[in-house]
């Protein structure tokens, strides 16, 4: 306190338990949406967006808001990044979940393979198939066609065209991959959140009155 000046209140760094719990809930929801939402449209986009959002959430929401810029314990850092990594890996099969819930199974015809150019100039093979309704769509995953043009193949596809088709039967969809890794990622992030809120390293924990 300076001479003749008003006393300054020390800044409260970090959040209390209740607000930290709410902030963690938002972090978990945003991490799940960023890992699975873009992956429905494109695997590469899903990985890129998922990682960018995870880094942003850690640097801004976790470190600066929840912890107030104070050091984060090794266990909490590991829990966050393990949980985030599990979500990104699970997002690789996000289209399978949507197709398992709202997809139709039928017989598609291999139409042709094309060579596409990605956003970073990389070139890759993309297979296109003719669906039972007559529409020609590209598969949800890149790579050469599994059979010559004109070959018929079992397909699961989205009538709305929201996600690309997958050349497999309903029983072959890897929805369990996305669900398993997703639940494991949510569990890891939730455990980190609980350990933060209830543990001794939460930066700001108000004392009870009378103490």
Describe what this molecule looks like in 3D.
The protein has helices at about 15-40, 45-65, 75-90, 95-100, 175-200; strands at about 105-115, 125-130, 135-140, 150-155. With about 210 residues, the chain is of the alpha+beta class. The chain has a four-stranded antiparallel β-sheet with strand order 3-2-1-4, covered by helices on one side. Strand 2 (about 125-130) and strand 3 form a beta hairpin.
What attributes does this structure have?
single chain; 211 residues; alpha+beta; 4 strands; elongated
Produce the secondary structure layout.
Layout: H1 17-41, H2 43-66, H3 74-90, H4 94-102, E1 104-117, E2 123-130, E3 136-138, E4 152-157, H5 175-198
Antiparallel strand pairs: 1-2, 1-4, 2-3
Helix pairs in contact: 1-2, 1-3, 1-5, 2-3, 3-5, 4-5
**Beta-strand content estimate:** 5-15%
How large is the count of helical segments? 5
Biggest sheet features: 4 strands, antiparallel
Order of helices and strands: HHHHEEEEH
What structural category arises from helix and sheet content?
alpha+beta
